[in-house]
Specification:
The chain is built from six helices and no strands. By secondary structure, the protein is mostly helical. Helix 1 packs antiparallel against helix 2 and helix 1 crosses helix 5.
Length: about 170
């Protein structure tokens, strides 16, 4: 998969792009899109707390792997939304879901040896969509491209806000 930085940058790009279109999306909401872009990578908690340890503690079979699927990320989004005030939950769920979609799209774009992506829709379906083969997980150019676009959007957003403030809009 694309590295974590690329996922965060793409979440930022999408969030800022949406903020140009929708006035209600401010910096805080862009952060929610970025957090959603990280949600499928919560599976990496398994590096610190292995599956076998959780299974031993709970006494039932356990795996972190479903967190990297559409179903797992829906559960993560719903849990994150519970941390927010009820009036913000709907908005947060939508923005987190947008971030998750950017992550899953980037992962499906990976070049894989089988030509297929992982079972994104598990447990609803074991269908493995075809991989677009756009880049390898070890490639650095996706982060460079995303970083360049993110910096341009950051500067554009900053310039746009300053010009609106000075013109009295």
């Amino acid at each position: 998969m694309a590295d974590v930085l690329t996922h965060v940058l793409v979440g930022y790009i999408v969030g800022v792009s949406l903020s140009f279109r929708y006035d209600w999306i401010k910096t805080e909401q862009v952060t929610l899109v970025m957090l959603g872009a990280l949600a499928p990578d919560f599976v990496k908690i398994g590096l610190f707390v292995p599956d076998w340890r959780v299974a031993h503690l709970l006494g039932v079979p356990f795996s972190w792997s479903p967190l990297h699927t559409l179903f797992g990320t829906v559960i993560v989004i719903l849990l994150i939304s519970l941390l927010l005030a009820p009036r913000y939950r709907k908005q947060a769920i939508i923005l987190l879901a947008i971030g998750v979609v950017t992550h899953l799209v980037l992962d499906i774009a990976l070049l894989t040896p089988t030509g297929e992506a992982y079972a994104v829709f598990w447990p609803l379906s074991s269908y493995r969509p075809p991989s677009s083969g756009l880049y390898l997980s070890s490639d650095r150019w996706p982060a460079l491209v995303a970083g360049t676009i993110a910096v341009a959007l950051w500067a554009g957003r900053r310039y746009w806000s300053e010009s609106e403030a000075s013109s009295g809009l």
